[in-house]
C-alpha cells in the first residue's frame, strides 16, 4: 500500500526556487535558519507573535476574569493584520521574496485569524460540546483555505500574473468575527454577564449535555463554509 506522499506527483520547481531551498539546507550552525531570514520574514513572524499573544491574553482572562485581558486579546489580531499587510510591502521594497516567506505567512495567518478568533469565541461563551465542534471546524476550514491558496498560487504561471479574485473568503476576514465579539463584550453579552445573544437550543438530551448548542455558533459554521467555498468569488483589493 503506497502512502499519499509516494503516490503524489512531485511539483516541479524552477532553478531559482531550488536555489532558495538549498540555502536553508546547506547552511550549518545552530542559528543558520535565523540568519537566512529576510526582513519581510521577520515582519511576517510578528503577525504570528500578535496571534500568539492574543491566545495567551484569552487564557489570562479565563483565569483572572480581568476584562482588560479580553480587550487585549480582541485587539491583537488587528495588529496581526497590519503586519500581514506590511510584510508584502517590505518584500516588494526589498525586492526579495521566498518560498519560506510564503509558508511563514500562512502559518502566522492560521494563528492570528484562525486559532485566536476561535479561542475568543470560546472565551466569550461558546463552551458547549457542539460549540467547540463549530469552533474546531472553523480552524480546520481556515487551515484548508490556506493550503488551497498556497497550492493555487504555485500553479498560476508567472506570466499570467495574480488572480483577480479569491476563491472563498480569505482567512483574515475572520476579523469581522472578532469585531462582532468586541461588540458583544461592549454590550455585556458574554458568559458571566448577560449571556450570548439568542441563548442555546437543545438538539438532543438534557440541558448542559452534549446536545446543547448556542445559536450564534452558526456564525462560525457559516464563516468556515464561506472560507472553503469554491463558488464564492471575492474580488481582490
UniProtKB/TrEMBL annotation:
Its main location: endoplasmic reticulum. One of its GO terms (biological process) is phosphatidylserine biosynthetic process. InterPro entries: CDP-alcohol_PTase-I, CDP-diaglyc--ser_O-PTrfase, CDP-OH_P_trans, CDP-OH_PTrfase_TM_dom, CDP_ALCOHOL_P_TRANSF_CS. Pfam families: CDP-OH_P_transf. Its EC number is 2.7.8.8. Signal peptide: none annotated. One of its GO terms (cellular component) is endoplasmic reticulum membrane. It is a multi-pass membrane protein. Keywords: Endoplasmic reticulum, Lipid biosynthesis, Lipid metabolism, Membrane, Phospholipid biosynthesis, Phospholipid metabolism, Transferase, Transmembrane, Transmembrane helix. The chain crosses the membrane at residues 42-63, 69-86, 107-126. It comes from the Eukaryota. It catalyses: a CDP-1,2-diacyl-sn-glycerol + L-serine = a 1,2-diacyl-sn-glycero-3-phospho-L-serine + CMP + H(+). Pathway: Phospholipid metabolism; phosphatidylethanolamine biosynthesis; phosphatidylethanolamine from CDP-diacylglycerol: step 1/2; Lipid metabolism. One of its GO terms (molecular function) is CDP-diacylglycerol-serine O-phosphatidyltransferase activity. It is found in: Endoplasmic reticulum membrane. Belongs to the CDP-alcohol phosphatidyltransferase class-I family. This is CDP-diacylglycerol--serine O-phosphatidyltransferase.
Amino acid at each position: 500500500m503506497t502512502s499519499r506522499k509516494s503516490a503524489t506527483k512531485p511539483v516541479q520547481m524552477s532553478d531559482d526556487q531550488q536555489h532558495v531551498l538549498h540555502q536553508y539546507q546547506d547552511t550549518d550552525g545552530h542559528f543558520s535558519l535565523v540568519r537566512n531570514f529576510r526582513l519581510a520574514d521577520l515582519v511576517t513572524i510578528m503577525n504570528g507573535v500578535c496571534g500568539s499573544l492574543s491566545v495567551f491574553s484569552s487564557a489570562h482572562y479565563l483565569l483572572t476574569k480581568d476584562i482588560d485581558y479580553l480587550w487585549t486579546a480582541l485587539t491583537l489580531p488587528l495588529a496581526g493584520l497590519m503586519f500581514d499587510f506590511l510584510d508584502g510591502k517590505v518584500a516588494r521594497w526589498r525586492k526579495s521574496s521566498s518560498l519560506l516567506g510564503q509558508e511563514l505567512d500562512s502559518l502566522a495567518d492560521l494563528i492570528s485569524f484562525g486559532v485566536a478568533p476561535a479561542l475568543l469565541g470560546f472565551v466569550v461563551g461558546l463552551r458547549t460540546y457542539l460549540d467547540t465542534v463549530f469552533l474546531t471546524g472553523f480552524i480546520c476550514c481556515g487551515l484548508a483555505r490556506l493550503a488551497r491558496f498556497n497550492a493555487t498560487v504555485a500553479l498560476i504561471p508567472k506570466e499570467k500574473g495574480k488572480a483577480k479574485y479569491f476563491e472563498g473568503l480569505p482567512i483574515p476576514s475572520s476579523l469581522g468575527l472578532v469585531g462582532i465579539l468586541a461588540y458583544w463584550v461592549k454590550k455585556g453579552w458574554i458568559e458571566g454577564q448577560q449571556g450570548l445573544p439568542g441563548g442555546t437550543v437543545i438538539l438532543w438530551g438534557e440541558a448542559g449535555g452534549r446536545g446543547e448548542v448556542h445559536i450564534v455558533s452558526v456564525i462560525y459554521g457559516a464563516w468556515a463554509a464561506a472560507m472553503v467555498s469554491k463558488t464564492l468569488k471575492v474580488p481582490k483589493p
